[in-house]
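Table S2 (text version). Query chain:
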Amino acid sequence: MVINARILPLSGISVVPTPLRRCDPSSTWCYSAVLSPSSSLPPGTNFLATQVWPSSRTASFVLEQHLDTSWTVCELGCGPGLPSLTAAKLGAARVIATDVEDVALEMVRMAALEQEFCTEGVRDKNGERLVTQKFDLTLKEESLPLADLYILSDVFESSRVAEGAAWHVKSLLGSSDNQLDRRYKSKSNDSYSVVDRATSTSRVWVFAQSDRAQRDSFLKSIREIHGYQNLDWTTNHNPDKDARLWLFDLNEMGVQYN
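Corresponding structure-token output:
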């Protein structure tokens, strides 16, 4: 991979390509922000959303082993989007990378364009393998895009995000503590943006380092679902074929970089 650092056209930040495997020139890669006295993030941008964290690498490696290419994959809180880009390269039917941060979505779009996973790279065009969508996990009225697999990697930066993530996951699994309509309804009425909680068979894979304190509050909420009372984080990174929800525990020191 020979790609130089560049300036993103919308945000104006400096980014560099960050590969899944440093020693493999054909490896999937994403952009991550370069911060220096001469290059800073736009005001209000979350630094965490511009960096590649170990959990996103682990998620990408798991996708390499277990992705069904007939699936539509939706990454929630994607940041630079390494798992989304990996799924696109592996040939997933469709990939939807979501985040609340505009800078993160711009990084994903530009990396997807460079790797030819999309052509326009801005809006949902027919035939695009990878699209981006703004989505706030903390807002319960937000409409989840329709997908076969949802991925969350190290999104538990605050109790508010952990609570929102748990609410959406519980809704997908058919159990929710709110009285909203049983269908998520898209503002655009796009068929890709409606999830029927009653009939959904989507899988959810959640990745989090063992030192992430807010993951415990997420797990506590998930355990309120009938049938999930004994669920826990696991170091077994081979999800059961029929499991609707799998919680991947990882140690930062054991994450592969080459």
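Notes on Table S2: The longest strand covers residues 203-209. The helical segments are 54-66, 82-90, 102-114, 159-172, 215-222.
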